[in-house]
Structures are given as structure tokens and as C-alpha cells.
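Hi Y.,

Following your request, here is the sequence exactly as I used it, all 370 residues.
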Amino acid sequence: MTRPFTGPTPADAPASLATLHAQAFPMLSSAQVAQVAPYGETIAVPAGSVLLNSGDREAAFYIVLEGYVEVLECEADGAMHSLLLHRDGEFTGSLDLFTDRPNAVTLRADCPSRLLRVDRPALAKLLLADRPLAEIVLRAFMLRRIGYVRQRPYGGAILRSAAGVGQADPVLDLVVVGGGTAGLAAAAYAASEGLHTLLVGRLRCRADLPGADALPGFPGTVTGLCDGGLLRRAEDQSRRFGSHVLPSRVARSFDGSGYPYRIGLDDGQVVEARSLIVATGMRQDGVGEPAAQANTAWLDGYLDTDDWGYIHTGRAAAGSMQARAFESSQPGVFAAGAVRAGSVKHVLACIGEGAASVRVVHRFLDASAH
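Below is the corresponding structure, written out as C-alpha cells. Let me know if you'd prefer a different format.
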């Protein structure tokens, strides 16, 4: 007898808000700043200088060496609202740096300031070359995106739950399976844009076990992003807007014979969802080999895959000439990151795919609602 999804268990208790803030806004040491310096340039800016504009696509990463950088949000009436100040040793940025999305906020020097500026291509090179620093930066970027929800969802998205006010909707808008970089990015964007989202995120972090999002040029998983790390911290933020993170659960089955879809978890729970993003990566025991297997056996053969289990998407998916980007042969089921056939299998590309796939989920849900 299966049990319906009821949300996080006591074993998945959230981290403290103080820990969340420290992880989202870390202060780099002088040695860490020195490691970044060859990738950027030191600039001096007067008070009031705008570094990035909300809505623009040109972006950069800044470390505050001296002074303050203010993060501002544009209100509906055009007024600018101050969200926070970055001080000496802190850095700016979020997951938007690795996507084609416009900047969500404006950055402005609050006083005469000295900054280390790193453009987007150089930042990508830095994070692929320096794993410890990458863990700090990517963890912060994930948490900032998850936490970027105030009175209204980002981008004007509408909460899609069919339940009435004050009622729980047993059917989720989206389930994301996979707690690697693609899955985390997808879940962070989906939840922050108003989708009732569940992230089933178990990862194994040891190199001799299958199940991790193994990425050439960035071996194994980012240790700070797996198991008891970022996923547990993300749960506290996600629950604020009706979404959930299950860091220790594994998806065991998928039933695509009806709609909404049904995903079975290893503890007996059954989740019903209007859409699904598969971001389960590839088996660690085949890293870098042409025959490395994707983690898709649990999908029970419902999706069109290649000989190694990688999911075909878009027009490459059998019978799917009208399929959207990232969409599999099963309408409303999407693949992102290393598990998708033809994807670029490194960490930053996986983040970009996870974020981009959420846009396509919105279009599917819009179409299926009419």
C-alpha cells in the first residue's frame, strides 16, 4: 500500500536562518580574493555608480574590496527598493550569471568603492579551475535564488495550485528529481517563480557509488551541494512559499499512463505532479567514458532514450516533432543537465539547462491549463 506525499519529515529538519544567511552571503578571505584576482580587474567607482541594471543581460561578478555595493529591486511603480548591502569581502551575483535571463536586480555603489570585477566568461573559467571556491560561490548563488521571493513571485508568475485559498493541493506543479547542479537550479527557479515544487534530491558523494551528477572538468559532485549540505539549507527557504525539499529521498518509479503523473519514492510515498524535470545525471562509475550510463532506469521505459539511457529531447525525441526544448517524448516531462542526450556535461552548463528548463515548464503548464 503506497502512501501519498505529505511533505518533509522530522528527519529533514531545516537549518537555522543564521546558517542560511552565512552560506548565502559568505565573506571571502584575503587569500581567496588573491586567487580570484588573476581572473579580473580592480576598479574604483564613485558613489552612486550603477554596476548592473535590472533587466539587462550583460552581467559581471564583483568582490567588494573597500566600500559598499547596494542591491536594489524595482517595484511595480518604478521605485527602487533596497534589498541589502554587500560589504568588504562579500561578492555579488546569483544563478542568473549562468543563464540567458535578464538581471533580476540593480547593483549600485553606495559610497566610493574599490571592487574586483570578473566578467562572465572569466568567472566560468575560475569556477571550473578552483573547486573549493566554486563550492562557496555556487552554494551562495543557489541559496540567493531560492530566497528571492517576497510578496510576489519573480517575473509576475502566478501560483498555479488549483486548490482554493487555505486548502492544500495534493497535486504538485512540478517535481524535480536529482539534487545535482541542474536539479538544484531548476528547483530554485521554479519555486521562486511561484510553482508548487518538490525537489527529490538524494545524491551519493563518494566516487565509487552510482547516482551522482558526474561532470568532466569538475569531478564528482560539488560536496557542499549534496546530502546534508545545501539541500537541507534549501528546505527552510523553500517551505516559505509552499514548496518542499526531500534531500534523503530517491525516486524509484514513474507512472506515465495517466495524468497527473505519479512518481514513487523509496519510502513508499507517491507524488502526483503536472510536470517533471529529470536531472539525475549519469553514473559515477562511468565518468568520462562514452558508455557512461544515465540514471534513468527508474523511469520504467516511458521516455525515449539512447542506448546509454540518456533522454532524447525536443525534435530528437521519438514521435515528438512538436516537443518543446528540453521536453522528452512524454509531454510535460523534461530533462536537464548531464542526463539529457546531447547536453554539455559540465557544471555550469548544467546550471544553465536547469534554469532554462523551467521556462519551458511554464509554457507547458500554461498550455495544459486551457
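The longest strand covers residues 60-66.

Thanks again,
Q.
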